[in-house]
Amino acid sequence: MKKSLELFQKIVQNLLEDESVHPVAEFVPSATLFEQMDLNLDEHPISEENLEEILQDLVFKAPRTATNAFFNQLFGGRNDKAILGDLLSVILNNSMYTYKAAGPMVGVEKAVLRKVCDLIGWDENAGGTFASGGSMTNFMGMLMARDFKQAEARYEGVQNTLTVYTSAESHYSTPKNAAFSGIGRNQVRSIAVDEKGAMDVATLEATILKDLEEGYTPTLVNATAGTTVLGAFDNVDAIADICHKYKVWFHVDGAYCGSVIFSKKYTHLLKGLDKVDSFSLNAHKMMGTPLTCSLLLVKNKKFLYDSFSNDASYLYQTDHDDFNLGKTSLQCGRRNDALKFWTLWKSVGTQGLEQMVNKQFELADFAREYVRNHADYEDFSIDDSISVCFNYKGIPARDLCTLLYEHSQLLVGYGSFGDLEFVRLVTINVNNDTDVILDFFKTLEQFVDENETLFLNSKVSV
Questions:
Q1: Contact status, residue 222 vs residue 199, Cβ threshold 8 Å
Q2: Is the pLDDT of residue 173 over 90?
Q3: Which of helix, strand or coil describes residue 420?
Q4: pLDDT at residue 439 in the model
Q5: CA distance to 131, 141, 197, 392, 455, per residue, from 396 (Å)
Q6: Which of 38, 102, 160 is CA-nearest to residue 325?
Q7: Residues with Cβ within 8 Å of residue 394, at least 6 apart in sequence
Q8: Using CA atoms, how far apart are residues 137 and 336, in angstroms rounded to an integer?
Q9: Is the full-model pTM beyond 0.90?
């Protein structure tokens, strides 16, 4: 173990030094991946020296998601205290299903969940769990909604036609989850959005009424706090009133931007959150913890037990259910994802988390102002979002993003809204500052200026 930890430290130190000079890794085309790199598994062991060489090559050529040139996904950067917690959880290797296997780590998870419930404004009946990602927390929310509306489904299967409602800009996991839950993809109603990407509340209510008239059973409304492309927030307060009126489970998918609850300045974007039935957020996004760290919170933890508890005498042998977290989890064996978030939160306090959220919006505002004040850019952004959407000199966004990636300049993605397609810059890395944002635009502009012929002859499919 000592030798392996020394090797780990050596490779990490080399990586950090190289990242400071080369923030984007060397591009390795998927078509030649197995020719360029030694990834094959052999019958016989290799030497320690050979293993070190292969590992470092692998690490050096992996996408660098923590540098100031990564703006591609809804995560990025490194927080040293969160990484410390994650490394400790790996060494300890506790599984979070029982107190016997996890011990005080159960208290770590419960402390995090309780504090988030307090921030939402829920009482002692509230609870939650951790899951492997936003798709999973959304799935668990759908399962609780199904069981809330049709309790016998847990034993007999889905007996009648349940319906689910989500915005046209919501996460792609909703139709998949409908298939997994037995509700069915065809029973998902895609609700139109307004010009800013938020769910149209009047259309939602009209769709629910139409389904009721036709004999369907409205079961779940899935709202979004930070849509994947524009970063829009659905009107939680207004949707909650509709859900209460028609007795529909209300889940808010805050995987991307649910962490605004930590900020006094931006928590208004989730006004009415205390009225919802379940809520999810990913601390590996706005909070900058290592992947994955997804929280599911429930206003009444009874529904977690109803949907996910199952007895197993070989497993639950000590302590009561409240400390045997497998009774409220979809998973059995489950790594300790809470420790990295707890370590971060413990080190910086709630005020530190608030500063992280505020900074991301400040960087986005700065980037938007740059776009709006330069004639070569066309702005497609909305305010109060950490997604900055634009096009540059009329270049197709997918061409620009792909060529920047293939030439190891920047990692940034593109998205679409309606008939528009554009570059989507996310300012989720709190290690960045305004100089980094300026460098992003400078790098993009210089690359285009120096490669005019490349864009004129681009073979990237549009």
A1: no
A2: yes
A3: strand
A4: 98
A5: 37, 38, 22, 8, 9
A6: 102
A7: 378
A8: 16
A9: yes
CATH of 84-344, one of 3.90.400.10, 3.30.930.10, 3.40.640.10, 3.40.50.2000: 3.40.640.10
**Strand, coil or helix: 151:** coil
Question: Residue for token digits 């305010």?
Answer: 383
φ, ψ for residue 297, nearest 5 deg: -115, 140
pLDDT band of 160, cuts 50, 70, 90: confident
Find out whether 325 and 102 touch, Cβ atoms under 8 Å.
yes
DSSP single-letter state for residue 415 = E
pLDDT tens track for 297-321: 999 999 999 999 887 676 666 767 8
What six digits make up the tokens of 234?
A: 């659905």
Report the chain's C-alpha Rg in angstroms: 23
Q: Which amino acid is at 154?
A: R
How is the chain split into domains, by residue range?
A: 2-64, 84-344
Strand partners, 217: 162
393 Rama class: left (phi>0) / alpha (psi -120 to 50) / beta: left
314-348 pLDDT, tens digit per residue, is 666 676 788 998 989 998 899 999 999 999 999 99
Measured CA to CA in angstroms, residue 351 lies from 130, 280, 287, 344 at distances of 23, 21, 12, 12
Please give the sequence-ordered ranges of beta strands (E in DSSP) within 299-410, or none if there are none.
377-379, 387-392
Q: Residue 222's closest CA among 175, 173, 165, 276?
A: 165
Mapping DSSP to helix (H, G, I), strand (E, B) and coil, where does residue 256 land? coil
